[in-house]
């Protein structure tokens, strides 16, 4: 039987009728042994659907199995319940399933929660009383149960987010734990902790934080954390990032997060992987209304995507454009959409797009001609699949008109003219809806066009009526138009002809029209009053209750006629006769039919750009911090209004140092005006085209202030303006405040408040300081001055480190770190070669770290490295600086795997794009896998310029990079000492300067980062650990000028390595 | 993004199809109720759409108001239909996780495994996804659950196979 059932499932899958076996599936589930039961349940869940009659027969089996003592049976029953279950039978099993929530086995608890979720979905009211049990499930000690309960919460919060605000804290905590990797490792997916759980939580948070500043406040931290943690280059992390970005843009905005999220979107959009690109576009589409500037940043990519071979990308791009449409770019965008429409064959896509075009056209039409023409295109391309709202809205717009009567008139005249022109072409087939629109407009407004004889119009309509492709519905429209026209002309041959023809038509409707027309023609006065001109908007009073028929009805009833039953009542009666057992409550079928009839198009999404203060300030802040990276993009765009402000800032940032080293600076100023003509000349024709397209597309996005300047202003004037702006800033350079004022007054609408501006200028000062340091030889002094506070700051780190650096000890000598104060000339040279020397991000600068050293460089790109010694790993910070004046794409940094080192997370880093003259950095956590005194880690960086270029580099890492002091007490030391097996003993000679024992220990402590546990007489104990946590203990003793070292460690190689380091240190000092 | 859109937002897989490069259906699971005729039509349509796509395009296709997310593993296509608002990348990973589960259960899974043990493939799917939503993300637990019931199955089988006389 079991085999039969399996085969039956297979047959069903192949598409054969197998409903005869359904009952056997239920029987198998009911009567079979475990093995058969399982197949039976499976077959039931595959064969039957929610409302299948046979499902009732399953209830008893389920109840029986739920009470079974066999776990597997309970599991199977719960699984099937959470897939399909008849709604009306829920009460029968509900108490049993509730009991299961307390079951000792996690899997049963989890499945019980799933079953309850299913119940919640099909009958939310029935599980209302157990909401507190859901809470218990949320706090379950098993993560699986908790995860299952999140489904319920997501659903409940979706329906009513305000009721669950108090749980925000819990969700945040859970997410924090998940992100922090506190869950057991088997929830990991490709070493990402429980991604599905994360995403579920992110969605919940998004729903909770929407429009709620206070709740959003709670989740900022964890969102930031999630963004930060999702670093690995894998699909799943991108999925999480995507969700994160969505959440961040859904909740009450916080500028920092928005900024980070925007960066993330950049990563997506610029990715060479098509899937990621698509998601990036999707994210952009989602956020674009809040942050239109993002579109500006990615203009080029968007343009490229418009011509992408994959239709889904194209469509998403159009969706994106749809959301940034405004009065200025509407023509181009609609044109793009129409182009796509012409290629597309998918009905859904057409309906969707046609609706959007119509909406945009109505909203932003720049002039009448364009509007009518676009609508014509919509009707002819969209054909008959267009939603009936579109023609209706269009006609209403025509009829009701705008405020301006003159305008209306023109619009109507133009419409009539264009339709006449279209009808001129004899054999063209137009969609029915379009014909209907045409005939209505012609009928209504023919008289506005004075130079066309109504007779001509009538002939055209007449010929249309004779066409076979015209449906009878359209014919009715045409007849109505003919009637209207006829009422305003004295007598027409065509009309007479038409009446003659149609009076014998087989179509009763047309025949009726013809007769009506005939009679009306005989009574012109009546006709005139029936069809007044341009009265389509005047309200007609209609007696909807048909009260004038009351007498007739009463008479009918009096003669014994059955009383009238409304349509739905009749239908119900019919239905109930058809079905012996009707489980559906009455009235439902009617309700659903009504609602389906009423469902309209989505209400037009408001296209107003986020203009609330916070949104704006967020945008501004974002833009400001990114200024330097944006250069490339901006150059291509020439967006006035947006651009001068940035220029302003660049000028501000660089100007003070421009005086001492003007020529050197040329390469450094983000975008020297002098470079521009060359740039323009070298651009290929195609690029220019794209730029042009882009400038038309993205016009009017950046700011409201710049709007009037854009669009038509040619590049020459733009250039001029830019230059003058720089000049201006240079004049003003001494007075930063003046500058700010001018910036504020010039670009008032963009900068909401002056305080923000001030902050920005501070930021740029910071940048200047950093940039100044490597800039020129004149600046060495400056440089030193700049270093000083840095080293002051570093006094926070262990003094041994700083002393290391000062004494240039050998500790780092082999790691080719140039420590401090390279000779001025060298720096000068390096400055001219590499205008960009990166500095550490602030949060890392606090930590002990090495100098930033160059790894390798080419014409286009330079690599710098800095080691940061954190408590739990060695961080390699790699800076990739783009030295060119254009953006570098797809920069890929790869470390080769070695046996010695383990790179946490992934060995590669990708920078989708590095803007001109800017520095990107990535950080890699490192661990030492195999102990060695030092080893080389090599890698390469590849990037795309004209061709694929690859640069090799190598880094030397020493054992000491991975050694950290280990704090412990003397007693702990004693215990640990005894438990360790590998030991190494060695006597080394103490040099003369370290005559005292404590001095020697100091040296060791300082240079080797050992922790001095205790000193007892002439014996000392020290402890350290190799990351992550391999301890190594050192016992040392002096006797007769020798230092006896005794190492112990669980790792055999570690004492040897440390001994070597000790010897080296002692010899050098 | 507006209120209405957000409310409609659901994150549910509508159906999962497995089919071979030759267009033969290997597994189907529906999480929405549709008449059989409709299902057959949809399957035909989708198989055709996906097989005709070239390798270089993205793994996502617009289909009616849904989105198809598909991935090819050897000769088998795994295809999920999700809602427009859902996370496509995540769905790709759902597919991948399912393949991993199959792989773990069968040990180097191939198309034949699924043809000959397709009820097992269903069991695993049911353990992993319920009602179109991912339920058990722990690989270990999911496979363990299947194996546990398998084990019971074996013992019962052994028991049944004992000669009764």
TrEMBL record, chain A:
Bilayer topology: Peripheral membrane protein
Compartments it resides in: Endomembrane system
Tagged with keyword Membrane: yes
InterPro entries according to UniProt: Adaptor_Complx_Large_Subunit, AP4_complex_esu, AP4E1_C, ARM-like, ARM-type_fold, Clathrin/coatomer_adapt-like_N
Spans annotated as Disordered: 594-689, 716-736
Limits of the AP-4 complex subunit epsilon-1 C-terminal domain: 964-1067
Alphabetical list of SUPFAM superfamilies matching this protein: ARM repeat
GO cellular component, one term: AP-4 adaptor complex
Keyword terms of this UniProt record: Golgi apparatus, Membrane, Protein transport, Transport
Keyword Ribonucleoprotein found: no
Pfam families assigned to the protein according to its UniProt record, in alphabetical order: Adaptin_N, AP4E_app_platf
Gene3D superfamilies registered for this protein in UniProt: Leucine-rich Repeat Variant
Compositionally biased spans, kind Basic and acidic residues: 620-652, 725-734
GO biological process assignments: intracellular protein transport; vesicle-mediated transport
Biased composition (Polar residues): 594-619
Family of the protein in this entry: Belongs to the adaptor complexes large subunit family.
Subunit organization: Adaptor protein complex 4 (AP-4) is a heterotetramer composed of two large adaptins, a medium adaptin and a small adaptin.
Function according to Swiss-Prot or TrEMBL: Subunit of novel type of clathrin- or non-clathrin-associated protein coat involved in targeting proteins from the trans-Golgi network (TGN) to the endosomal-lysosomal system.
Protein name: AP-4 complex subunit epsilon
Organism name: Ficedula albicollis
Organismal lineage: Eukaryota, Metazoa, Chordata, Craniata, Vertebrata
From TrEMBL, chain B:
UniProtKB keywords: Cytoplasmic vesicle, Golgi apparatus, Membrane, Protein transport, Transport
Membrane topology, record value: Peripheral membrane protein
GO molecular function, one term: clathrin adaptor activity
SUPFAM superfamilies documented for this protein: SNARE-like
GO BP, sorted A to Z: intracellular protein transport
Domain named AP complex mu/sigma subunit: residues: 13-151
Principal cellular location given in the protein's record: membrane
Compartment(s): Cytoplasmic vesicle membrane; Golgi apparatus; Membrane, Clathrin-coated pit
Pfam families, sorted: Clat_adaptor_s
Record-level GO cellular component terms: AP-1 adaptor complex; clathrin-coated pit
Entry annotated with the keyword Membrane: yes
Family statement drawn from the similarity comment of this UniProt entry: Belongs to the adaptor complexes small subunit family.
Protein name stated in the entry: AP complex subunit sigma
Native organism: Ficedula albicollis
Lineage: Eukaryota, Metazoa, Chordata, Craniata, Vertebrata
């Amino acid at each position: 039987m079991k085999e039969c059932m399996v085969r039956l499932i297979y047959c069903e899958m192949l598409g054969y009728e197998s409903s005869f076996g359904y009952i056997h599936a239920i029987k198998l589930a009911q009567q079979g042994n475990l093995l058969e039961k399982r197949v039976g349940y499976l077959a039931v869940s595959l064969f039957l659907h929610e409302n299948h009659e046979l499902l009732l027969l399953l209830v008893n089996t389920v109840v029986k199995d739920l009470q079974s003592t066999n776990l597997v049976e309970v599991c199977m029953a719960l699984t099937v319940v959470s897939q399909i279950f008849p709604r009306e039978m829920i009460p029968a099993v509900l108490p049993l399933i509730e009991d299961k929530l307390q079951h000792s086995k996690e899997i049963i608890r989890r499945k019980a929660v799933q079953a309850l979720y299913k119940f919640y979905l099909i009958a939310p009211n029935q599980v209302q009383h157990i909401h507190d049990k859901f809470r218990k499930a949320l706090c379950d000690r098993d993560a699986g149960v908790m995860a299952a309960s999140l489904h319920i919460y997501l659903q409940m919060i979706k329906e009513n987010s305000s009721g669950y605000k108090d749980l925000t804290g819990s969700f945040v905590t859970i997410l924090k734990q998940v992100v922090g990797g506190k869950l057991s490792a088997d929830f990991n997916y490709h070493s990402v902790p429980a991604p599905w759980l994360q995403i579920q939580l992110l969605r919940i948070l998004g729903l909770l934080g929407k429009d709620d500043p206070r709740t959003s406040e709670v989740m900022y931290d964890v969102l930031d954390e999630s963004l930060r943690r999702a670093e690995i280059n894998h699909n799943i992390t991108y999925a999480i990032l995507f969700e994160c970005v969505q959440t961040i843009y859904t909740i009450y905005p916080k500028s920092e997060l928005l900024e980070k999220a925007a960066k993330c979107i950049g990563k997506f959009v610029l990715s060479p992987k098509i899937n990621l690109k698509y998601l990036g576009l999707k994210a952009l589409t989602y956020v674009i209304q809040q942050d239109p500037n993002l579109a500006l940043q990615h203009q080029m990519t968007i343009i490229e995507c418009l011509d992408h071979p994959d239709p889904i990308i194209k469509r998403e791009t159009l969706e994106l454009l749809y959301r940034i449409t405004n009065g200025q770019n509407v023509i181009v965008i609609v044109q793009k959409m129409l182009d796509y429409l012409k290629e597309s064959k998918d009905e859904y896509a057409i309906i969707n797009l046609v609706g959007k075009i119509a909406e945009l056209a109505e909203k932003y039409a720049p002039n009448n001609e364009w509007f009518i023409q676009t609508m014509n295109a919509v009707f002819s391309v969209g054909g008959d699949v267009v939603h009936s709202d579109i023609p209706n809205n269009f006609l209403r717009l025509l009829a009701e008109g705008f405020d301006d009567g003159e305008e209306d008139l023109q619009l109507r005249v133009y419409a009539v003219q264009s339709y006449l022109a279209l009808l001129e072409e004899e054999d063209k087939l137009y969609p029915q809806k379009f014909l209907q629109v045409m005939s209505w407009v012609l009928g209504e407004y023919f008289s506005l066009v004075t130079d066309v004889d109504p007779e001509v119009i009538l002939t055209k309509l007449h010929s249309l009526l004779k066409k076979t492709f015209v449906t009878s519905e359209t014919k009715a429209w045409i007849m109505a138009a003919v009637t209207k026209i006829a009422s305003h002309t004295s007598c027409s041959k065509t009309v007479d002809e038409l009446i003659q023809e149609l009076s014998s038509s087989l179509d009763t409707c047309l025949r009726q029209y013809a007769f009506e027309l005939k009679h009306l023609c005989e009574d012109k006065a009546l006709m005139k009053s029936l069809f007044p001109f341009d009265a389509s908007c005047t309200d007609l009073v209609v007696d909807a209750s048909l009260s004038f028929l009351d007498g007739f009805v009463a008479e009918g009833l009096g003669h014994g006629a059955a009383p009238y039953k409304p349509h739905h009542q009749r239908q119900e009666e019919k239905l109930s006769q058809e079905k012996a057992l009707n489980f559906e409550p009455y009235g439902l079928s009617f309700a659903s039919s009504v609602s389906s009839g009423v469902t309209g198009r989505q209400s037009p999404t408001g296209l107003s750009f986020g203009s609330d203060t916070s949104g704006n300030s967020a945008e501004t802040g974002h833009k400001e911090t990114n200024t330097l990276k944006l250069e490339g993009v901006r150059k291509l765009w020439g967006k006035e209004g947006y651009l001068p402000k940035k220029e302003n800032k660049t000028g501000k940032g660089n100007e003070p140092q421009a005086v001492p080293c003007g020529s050197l600076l040329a390469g450094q100023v983000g975008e020297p005006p002098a470079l521009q003509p060359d740039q323009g000349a070298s651009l290929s024709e195609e690029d220019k085209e794209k730029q042009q397209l882009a400038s038309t597309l993205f016009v009017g996005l950046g700011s409201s202030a710049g709007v009037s300047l854009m669009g038509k202003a040619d590049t020459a004037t733009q250039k001029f303006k830019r230059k003058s702006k720089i000049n201006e800033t240079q004049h003003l350079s001494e007075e930063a405040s003046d500058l700010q004022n001018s910036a504020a007054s010039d670009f008032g609408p963009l900068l909401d408040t002056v305080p923000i501006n001030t902050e920005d200028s501070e930021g740029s000062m910071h940048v200047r300081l950093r940039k100044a340091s490597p800039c020129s030889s004149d600046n060495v002094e400056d440089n030193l001055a700049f270093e000083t506070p840095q080293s002051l700051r570093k006094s926070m780190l262990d003094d041994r480190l700083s002393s290391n650096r000062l004494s240039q000890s050998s500790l780092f000598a082999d790691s080719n770190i140039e420590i401090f104060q390279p000779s001025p000339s060298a720096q000068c040279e390096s400055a001219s070669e590499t205008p960009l020397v990166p500095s550490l991000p602030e949060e890392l600068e606090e930590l002990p770290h090495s100098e930033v050293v160059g790894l390798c460089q080419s014409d286009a790109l330079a690599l710098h490295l800095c080691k940061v010694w954190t408590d739990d790993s060695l961080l390699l910070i790699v800076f990739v600086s783009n030295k060119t004046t254009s953006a570098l794409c797809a920069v890929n940094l790869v470390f080769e795997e070695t046996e010695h080192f383990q790179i946490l997370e992934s060995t590669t880093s990708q920078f989708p794009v590095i803007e001109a003259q800017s520095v990107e950095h990535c950080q890699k956590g490192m661990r030492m896998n195999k102990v060695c005194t030092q080893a080389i880690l090599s890698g390469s960086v590849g990037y795309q310029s004209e061709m694929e270029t690859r640069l090799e580099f190598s880094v030397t890492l020493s054992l000491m990079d991975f050694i950290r002091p280990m704090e412990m007490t003397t007693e702990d030391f004693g215990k640990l000492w005894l438990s360790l097996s590998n030991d190494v003993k060695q006597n080394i000679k103490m040099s003369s300067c370290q005559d005292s024992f404590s001095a020697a220990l100091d040296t060791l402590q300082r240079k080797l980062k050992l922790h001095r546990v205790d000193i007892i007489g002439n014996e000392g104990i020290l402890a350290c650990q190799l990351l992550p946590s391999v301890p190594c203990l050192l016992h040392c003793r002096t006797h007769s000028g020798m230092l006896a070292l005794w190492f112990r460690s669980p790792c055999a190689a570690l004492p040897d390595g440390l001994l070597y380091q000790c010897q080296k240190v002692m010899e050098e000092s | 993004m507006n209120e209405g859109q957000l409310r409609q937002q659901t994150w549910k897989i509508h159906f999962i199809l497995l089919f071979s490069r030759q267009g033969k259906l290997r597994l189907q699971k529906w999480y929405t109720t549709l008449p059989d005729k409709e299902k057959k039509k949809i399957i035909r349509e989708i198989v055709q759409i996906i097989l005709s796509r070239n390798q270089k395009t993205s793994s996502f296709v617009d289909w009616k108001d849904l989105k198809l997310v598909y991935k090819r593993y050897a000769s088998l296509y795994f295809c999920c239909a999700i809602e427009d608002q859902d996370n496509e990348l995540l769905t790709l990973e759902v597919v991948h996780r399912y393949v991993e589960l199959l792989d773990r259960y069968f040990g180097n899974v191939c198309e034949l495994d699924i043809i000959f043990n397709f009820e097992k493939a269903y069991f695993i799917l049911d353990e992993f996804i319920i009602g179109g939503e991912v339920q058990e993300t722990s690989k270990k637990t999911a496979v363990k659950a299947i194996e546990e019931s398998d084990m019971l199955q074996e013992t019962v089988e052994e028991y049944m196979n004992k000669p009764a006389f």
